[in-house]
Amino acid sequence: MSDIHANGDMTREGEAGFGDYVALLKPRVMSLVVFTALVGLLVAPVPVHPFVTFTCVLFIALGGGASGALNMWWDSDIDRIMRRTKGRPIPAGRVQEGEALGLGLALSGISVIMLALASNIAAGLLLAFTIFFYVVIYSVWLKRSTPQNIVIGGAAGAFPPMIGWVCATGSVSLEAVLMFLLIFMWTPPHFWSLALFMNSDYEKAGVPMLTVTHGKRATRAHILVYTIALVPFALAAGFTSIGGPAYLAVAVALNLMFLWGAFRLWRRDEAQAEADGYAAEKRFFKFSLLYLFLHFTAFLLEAGLKSYGLGGW
Fold this sequence. Notes:
The chain is mainly alpha-helical. It is built from 15 helices and 2 strands. Helix content is about 75%, strand content about 0%.
């Protein structure tokens, strides 16, 4: 009997379609990897040929996809339990665990080797370390052992703009570090706001998210503290070679809004939050995505203005 999956492929029931293998690569996460890596590459002070830029971003994306596939392989047991993830290809029975493992390992090797050849060895090694960090340090070790999982593990998602910068320059600089820190410090408030309204999933799966181990009241306080700590890094980037008045104006507005949102979450009564279906928490989570996207768009805006002699200080 045939069945049309949500991905649009016509397959037999329980059989993987092309879209299922794409889903293994976590395309939504990959889109963030691609965008921030591209920005890191484009705002670097060394011009890169468009074809080389495309090639580098492609292999960074494949590396991100490899991490996603390996993460889904390792987490397939808890993905079957969590409502948010039970429809993924492995827990849904459309892709075998061995297939995900094989795909992840193959893409890891290809992406690292090809990025090193397309740009430089430093970029390839940094991509290899990023994959290792996400899969081994975060997924295998931290995620199931400590409520600080997302704090330390957030480094994996913060490396792409630094990789892009290294592709162009062959080295790490203050600007690359600040782009890294922007994502690194943004990650805990982003994911903890998600955990506030998805807490039952983590409880059932036995994942020691902060909401599970310390409660939602403490999580709200942590969101506010990390948001306050994030602001100096976001603003500091505006005074480097990748910043300028346009970026700083965007960053000030976004950080005021983000701070206000975090403060409102901190003040929220849990009974009130449950009564309105965690509406404020969901809005904060969605805005956090826009927050990061607009910061990196502002970096691009400054680079464009500078190309016409208008941006910078």
